[in-house]
Here is the input.
Amino acid sequence: MTSPVHIIGGGLAGSEAAWQLAAQGVAVVLHEMRPMRMTAAHKTEALAELVCSNSFRSDDREHNAVGLLHEEMRRLGSLIMRAADANQVPAGGALAVDRDGFAAAVTVALNGHPRIQIRREEVVGAPPAEWESVIVATGPLTSPALAQAIAQLTGEDALAFFDAIAPIVHRDSIDMGIAWLQSRYDKAGPGGSGADYINCPLGRDEYDAFVDALLAGEKVAFHDWEGTPYFDGCLPIEVMAERGRETLRHGPMKPFGLTNPHEPHVKPYAVVQLRQDNRLGTLFNMVGFQTKLKHAEQVRIFRTIPALAQAEFARLGGLHRNTFMHAPKLLDARLRLRFDPRLRFAGQITGCEGYVESAAIGLLAGRFAAAEKADEQLSPPPPTTAHGALLAHITGGHLPAEEQTAQAPRSYQPMNINFGLFQPLAAGTPRGDNGERLRGTAKTLAKKRQLTSRALADLDCWMAGSFALAAE
Here is the structure.
């Protein structure tokens, strides 16, 4: 009997890896330490629990890199995308989910699969030598004992950055006599209507007072985390405010593309948007309002926003430390540890950032491990695809050959999928349907459509050359 693949961590990456392996007929033992040992951010024992936003970001497969990644994952039989699609809530052009329904769907699917065994236990220290194939997908909240073992095993000091969580507000406590429903530029997304966000306006004086309160508010002390850098994609709102008084109104509080029906002739100076967080529509997430303010300060300061003067919070914001490894130096093109190839790594611990990106790397880790079990060599997906571009960033495939070893740059940082990671298009200016030369926005959109069309065509070819998905 073939030995199972052991997966450490039941987050999005570990869950997706387990599903992919089981779909190929490979036995899996999935180790998840919750609820025996909880993390600073998790609240439940569910697999694939979302601890920050409930958004998987844009679902536009033609013009957005993350939307393209969604589509590629769907074509590759992703459990994470299946659960997300089944539990979507309105969010304009984004794919947002009911977080509890999503996690429950993933948990039920994995619990019910005959080739997946789930062990609720903490793996303390390095994986045992008798485990022939291991995927470490413990994410940014790796337990201290395992993180220390990984650091000792790799000889690397774990890199780290702060991550912050946004508050969630009860819908019926928002003053809709001040706020209104509208998506930016009235854009409708999956399951949405073009009026999917609650918008809370602020005038100039209200905005200035809010920024002053943020800057003066009492924050969580760092203690031993002092000096750990933030990931720029998830900055606490008060850190953004420290970068300039106008930073917020050109970031998460930008008023552009919105018209207040209560005062259609008055342009808001700034707008706070809230996105639906559960299927019932009773909870809304404050978009971009991740914070390190103390809880009492959050309530006091966020209630200075006029439409939230009576706001009741289902969850307040928080702060935790994330860790990731120097993947270009340590991992090969199939996510194996260079000097101990029985160990693979997947998810945010590799230095990808975002729910979908983490799940996508878990998907690849599962497929690579399954091919290995079948004594096959699955080639990495083409770098023209979203999966291939993300994998190349993580493993150093985007670097010159002489830099793909111990001399890999020390500037390696977590990265969301974006078109800057893709191989450039062949030379030539995109043209319109009638051959006309395109400029400005039309040129940019045409270029993105060419990138995404090429990606999906190349993915289909890669899939045709790899082992087929097993029927469930």
